[in-house]
UniProtKB/TrEMBL annotation:
Cell compartments where the protein resides: Membrane
GO cellular component, one term: membrane
Annotated protein name in UniProt: COX15/CtaA family protein
Keywords for the protein's UniProt record, in alphabetical order: Cell membrane, Disulfide bond, Heme biosynthesis, Iron, Membrane, Metal-binding, Oxidoreductase, Transmembrane, Transmembrane helix
InterPro entries reported for this sequence: COX15/CtaA_fam, COX15/CtaA_HemeA_synthase
Membrane association type: Multi-pass membrane protein
Biological process annotations from GO: heme A biosynthetic process
Listed transmembrane segments: 81-100, 107-127, 133-151, 163-183, 189-212, 233-253, 308-326, 338-355, 361-384
Top-level taxon: Bacteria
Membrane among keywords: yes
Length: 394
């Protein structure tokens, strides 16, 4: 029980750090600082950033293709420092969960493969990109092994037991996130990796939040009639979670291809309801590795297709969230009605922030808030789904 309380406290710390990392990541992208440090994990060879005139001159000599822009170096390196701190906290959570695991929990293959993954990441820093294919193999083996273990021994519904597979999943995910962060730099903001990095950040935040729910034993105690009504909403709540996740992915693809202002008017796009679009190019997930993707390389029709899809996704999200809120509000329970208000309020606020991004030409504060709103809406759906699936009759 002491170990579980420690995991809970560490998870709360990890959640706070992860929230900062997500916001810093959004800020870094929005101020075009994704390549503020052209090397990884150092910044122009420095643990921090080059600050003196001599250091900057030497950095410009060593990295002539990417001269120092001091206003872009510090956001990137601060983001890396917080992300590294998050990784250490999550590995600490995994270590505590490992010590306090159930005796029947299979753990040897997880620890072995995690060790290989950590060693491979360190080796990548020393040896270079020749290890990238091997690293991808290590990542695949780690997550496939977790799937195998979950299939052999499904997660117990007993909320009092120490979670192990969820901390193990987080440990692998945070290392993968570090690799995505590295490839974001080494592959020159390749949109596929930038989007994956954003999704990985949101997923990490959501899984830490889920771990807090499990370790905190946050469940609903409801009378049987209310519980029976809420059971009919489980599928819709899960659909809502999937829709929000897909909309976040669309948002990630929008920002990684610099399509946020492809439609500069609202509610129309280019003063028409059906603008000229190029969906084949806009959703070409096989863009070449090599070019510098800072600022985007797609033409306007392709970017319009991405932006327009994100708007349609927002409309679909609103419909699903409104239906979910309506179903919750009809349940004869003050708790369910409160959650109906939370769901619809979070959705409306997020859509309002998205509209404001267009109307006010992507002001930094609103754009960062839009990222935060997406994370908040995701956490609302994660919490609701967890509560619905762990609710018990009083």
């Amino acid at each position: 029980m002491k170990n579980k309380k420690l995991v809970y406290r560490l998870s709360c710390l990890a959640f706070a750090v992860a929230a900062v990392v997500v916001l810093l990541g959004a800020f870094t992208r929005l101020v075009d600082a994704g390549l503020g440090c052209p090397d990884w994990p150092t910044c122009y060879g420095h643990v921090w950033v080059p600050t003196s005139e001599a250091d900057i001159a030497k950095a410009n000599e060593n990295f002539s293709h990417a001269p120092v822009e001091t206003h872009k170096t510090w956001p990137e390196q601060i983001h890396r420092i917080f992300a590294s701190s998050l990784g250490l906290v999550i590995l600490g959570i995994f270590a505590v969960a490992l010590v306090g695991r159930n005796e029947k929990t299979p753990w040897r293959s997880v620890v072995l493969l995690l060790g290989v993954l950590v060693a491979g990441t360190v080796g990548r820093v020393i040896i270079g990109d020749k290890l990238d294919p091997l690293l991808l193999l290590f990542v695949a083996c780690y997550f496939l092994n977790l799937c195998r273990l979950n299939w052999m021994q499904p997660t117990a519904s007993n909320t009092s037991s120490m979670p192990f597979k969820l901390p193990a999943l987080l440990a692998g995910l945070v290392i993968l996130q570090g690799l995505f962060g590295m490839w974001t730099v080494t592959l020159n903001l390749w949109p596929q990796v930038v989007t994956a990095h954003l999704l990985g950040g949101f997923t990490t935040l959501a899984l830490i939040w889920l771990l807090i729910q499990r370790c905190g034993n946050y469940t609903w105690q409801l009378n049987s009639a209310v519980l029976s009504e809420l059971n009919t909403i489980k599928v819709l709540a899960l659909i809502g979670l999937v829709v929000v996740a897909l909309q976040i992915a669309l948002g990630g693809w929008t920002t990684s291809n610099y399509a946020a202002l492809a439609c500069a008017d609202f509610p129309k796009c280019h003063n028409t309801w059906l603008p000229e679009t190029d969906f084949a190019q806009g959703f070409n997930f096989l863009q070449h590795v090599g070019p510098n993707y800072l600022g985007g390389v797609m033409d306007n029709a392709a970017r319009t297709a991405i932006h327009f899809s994100h708007r349609l996704g927002a409309l679909l999200t609103f419909v699903v969230m409104a239906l979910l809120a309506f179903r919750l509000f009809r349940v004869e329970s003050p708790l369910a009605k409160r959650w109906a208000v939370i769901v619809i309020a979070g959705t409306v606020l997020q859509i309002a922030l998205g509209i404001s991004n267009v109307v006010f030409a992507l002001p930094l504060a609103i754009a960062v808030a839009h990222n935060a709103g997406g994370a908040a809406l995701l956490l609302i759906l994660v919490t609701l789904n967890h509560r619905l699936r762990t609710a018990k009759a009083s």
